[in-house]
């Protein structure tokens, strides 16, 4: 199987994007898939969530201080990570001054080999770094909170992907929409989930239920599978992992998001 290059993104914050990236990566690695998780967010939430000790971050590779291979930290079997921190904000300014600003990060990530999955946790922005990653990845997974604002943000993502593809002559596709923060007791969550299912046939994953254990796990530097493996959060992300692996080797049809 060729390496699947997936950006986990939504231009709206507060949709459990990092939680999804971390636990999807952890779950895949537990299924004997070799995974590299790249943190593209200057807030460094993956570093905080998993307590990574890295000598070099993505910033160092972008500035040419070290090869990107030296930024890779092994967290567990089959699970490697490239971290970021606040200095990454300087990288966008640096990239804007370079003649290859539109390809710099893409060319850097192209040198990474030997993984089944390369997952990129993207910040809620459309800056140069995000554009580079979208032009590198083949698939986009979009975590979407099951509320009115989350639904509205999702509608805009398809247009964003179209613009990136046109600008970079690329073929990125939204291949998975992940409903998050789902509470079946709440009418807006139920209604939003129904709308998402109707508007995006074939793209929705099993919803990720609202679960306190998912919020607690980063405090202890653990994935949900290590922190509370019998929790609803672990069960939901476990199901997502199964669904993502079921996509392997399949030609995923391009399905437009209905506005």
Keywords:
259 residues; alpha/beta; Rossmann fold; 41% helix; globular; disordered C terminus
Detailed description of the structure:
It is a single chain. This protein is α/β, with parallel strands linked by helices. It has one domain (4-246): Rossmann fold (3-Layer(aba) Sandwich), CATH 3.40.50.300. The protein is built from eleven helices and seven strands. The protein has helices at residues 17-29, 45-50, 58-62, 88-96, 104-109, 128-136, 148-168, 187-199, 212-216, 224-227, 232-246; strands spanning 4-8, 35-39, 72-76, 79-82, 117-121, 139-145, 173-180. A seven-stranded mixed β-sheet has the order 3-4-2-5-1-6-7, sandwiched between helices. 44% of the residues are buried.
Topology of helices and strands:
Layout: E1 4-8, H1 17-29, E2 35-39, H2 45-50, H3 58-62, E3 72-76, E4 79-82, H4 88-96, H5 104-109, E5 117-121, H6 128-136, E6 139-145, H7 148-168, E7 173-180, H8 187-199, H9 212-216, H10 224-227, H11 232-246
Parallel strand pairs: 1-5, 1-6, 2-4, 2-5, 6-7
Antiparallel strand pairs: 3-4
